[in-house]
């Protein structure tokens, strides 16, 4: 029977993907993996654990502190500036190589456990301009992992071509809205969220366009 591993950050998108995987593969065939990469907002780790528990799936945290040692991102050091750009004109919140590393570690974790399906919440539509969220990047990485591990690993990105509105509607369809009250999206690391950072504004717009109240704001 097919098994799936969800890269779970504790945010809106990865939570939706967790419920997508549960619907597709069955709760007993799904597990989740969270990365402690030295992010300033440790609340992410608690949110991921709470979401996984709520969904009835296991959650494992892997420590990879190299990103914090490298620095250069507002998510690992410094403060988030709403309009600030980092190197190459990318947002200051861009962590270079993060999704590539996460998915590579996820594939390495899945390989000895006989898990063939990796699920990630990246999207190239309503996103923050991160190049490692693009479909061509994910497909190229999938091919690389298959060649490098001699496996038939598949990377699924259910939200890749969805707007934030469509992602909210999908979460509703999957029965994931209640879990949204346990999530964290705010770049300032606040619960309740700050409501002003790019992540908060993007999330708010998605719920508003879907005509659905964000459960996190009434939690």
Q: What would your notes on this structure say?
A:
- The relative contact order is 0.17.
- 38% of the residues lie in helices and 11% in strands.
- The protein has seven helices and five strands.
- The chain starts with a strand and ends in a 9-residue tail after the last helix.
- Residues 72-77 and 80-87 have low confidence and may be disordered.
- The protein has a five-stranded parallel beta sheet, sandwiched between helices.
- It has helices spanning 12-25, 43-55, 66-70, 98-110, 135-149, 164-174, 198-210; strands at 4-7, 30-36, 58-63, 117-119, 154-156.
- It has one domain (4-218): Rossmann fold, CATH 3.40.50.620.
- Helix 1 (12-25) packs parallel to helix 2, helix 1 crosses helix 6 and helix 4 packs parallel to helix 5.
- Strand 2, helix 2 (43-55) and strand 3 (58-63) form a beta-alpha-beta unit.
- The protein is an alpha/beta fold.
């Amino acid at each position: 029977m097919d098994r799936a591993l969800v890269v779970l950050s504790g945010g809106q998108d990865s939570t939706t993907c967790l419920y997508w995987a549960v619907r597709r593969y069955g709760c007993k065939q799904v597990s989740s993996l969270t990365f402690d990469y030295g992010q300033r907002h440790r609340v992410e780790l608690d949110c991921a654990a709470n979401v996984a528990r709520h969904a009835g799936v296991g959650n494992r945290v892997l420590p990879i502190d190299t990103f914090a040692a490298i620095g250069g991102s507002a998510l690992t050091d410094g403060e988030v500036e709403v309009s600030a750009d980092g190197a190459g004109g990318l947002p200051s919140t861009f962590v270079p190589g993060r999704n590539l590393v996460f998915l590579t570690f996820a594939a390495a974790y899945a390989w000895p456990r006989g898990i063939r399906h990796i699920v990630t919440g990246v999207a190239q539509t309503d996103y923050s301009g991160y190049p490692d969220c693009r479909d061509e990047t994910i497909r190229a990485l999938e091919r690389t992992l298959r060649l490098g591990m001699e496996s038939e690993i598949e990377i699924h990105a259910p939200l890749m071509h969805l707007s934030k509105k469509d992602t909210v509607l999908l979460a509703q369809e999957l029965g994931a809205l209640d879990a949204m009250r346990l999530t964290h999206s705010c770049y300032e690391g606040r619960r309740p969220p700050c409501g002003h950072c790019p992540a908060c504004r993007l999330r708010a717009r998605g719920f508003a366009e879907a005509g659905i109240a964000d459960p996190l704001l009434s939690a």
